[in-house]
Amino acid sequence: MRPVFLVLSKVLDLIVAPLTWAILLAVLALLCQRRSPGRARLLLALGILVLLVFSLEPVSRGLFAGLESGAKDSYRPDPPYDVVVVLGGVIDTGAMRRSGQLELNDAVDRISQAAILLRTGKARMALLSGGVVFPKPGDPPSEAVVLAGWFRDQGIEPDRLLLEEKSRNTRENATESAAIIAARGWKRVLLVTSAWHAPRALGCFRAAGLSPDLLTVDHRAGSPGSLSWLPRAGSLSASTDALRELFGGLVYRVMGYAT
């Protein structure tokens, strides 16, 4: 079941992309060109409209705002947490494969905030959760291993880092981490993840039998005051990420993976 779900999740990534919708509409327009030129023009116009709408910053920011509205911080600094759980999704594997160096993406706040919590004594341990989804030759080891090296470089003692290397998605992050937390007898648990990802992540941990406090980072909704109405490729990419998370959350709830 796990491998099938992983493959289906990657197919879902393709299906929910506005670029995919626009391409399909363009193909349908070509197929209809001879029999129904009017319908072909309508389909092509719809394809252009899809690209235009989701390439606007107010749309992409609005989608992220909807996601982040379900993320309510419950972080309490005292007493210290037994463990801070740091979810993967921070490493740019493709870039690492090319450069041979550590390459981090926009979710880097997850690990920088966790390092602060450890250095200031707000958390005693860090549980780094992240395995390898589809291993390829030349790929780095599990994300947990790579991030452990980063934490050590920041001066965090190795004995304060616990690695979970089996998980390949958010659900497995939760189930594998829950088993480790139960075995260790940890009670005060803090989950650190991106604000837009927090509702699904927290739902998975609750479904796994945990009720961690939440500290959100990597907020992407921004403020509504200075948004550009010019179409941008970056906004299209951001809209795609937000739609992927929205649909992913829906699938997780339907499957019972998240409360």
Number of helices: 10
Strand content: 5-15%
| Residue share in helix | 40-55%
Largest sheet, spatial ordering of strands: 3-2-1-4-5
CATH superfamily of the largest domain: HUPs
Q: What's the count of strands? A: 5
Euclidean distance between termini CA atoms: 20 Å
Number of domain units:
2
Name the poorly predicted regions: none
- Let me know the average pLDDT: 91
Structure class = alpha/beta
Any idea what the CATH architecture of the largest domain is? 3-Layer(aba) Sandwich
Radius of gyration: 21 Å
Principal-axis shape equals elongated
Name the helix and strand elements from N-terminus to C-terminus, one letter apiece. Answer: HHHHEHHEHEHEHEH
Described by its quaternary structure, the protein is: single chain
Written description of the protein model:
With 259 residues, the protein is an alpha/beta fold. The chain has two domains: 82 residues, no CATH class; 137 residues, Rossmann fold, CATH 3.40.50.620. Strands 3-2-1-4-5 form a five-stranded parallel β-sheet, with helices on both faces. Helix 7 links the parallel strand 2 and strand 3. Helix 2 runs antiparallel to helix 3, helix 4 runs parallel beside helix 10 and helix 8 crosses helix 9. The model has no long low-confidence stretch (mean pLDDT 91).
Topology of this structure?
Layout: H1 2-15, H2 18-32, H3 37-54, H4 57-68, E1 81-87, H5 93-99, H6 109-119, E2 123-129, H7 143-153, E3 161-164, H8 170-184, E4 189-194, H9 198-207, E5 213-217, H10 233-255
Parallel strand pairs: 1-2, 1-4, 2-3, 4-5
Helix pairs in contact: 2-3, 4-10, 8-9, 9-10
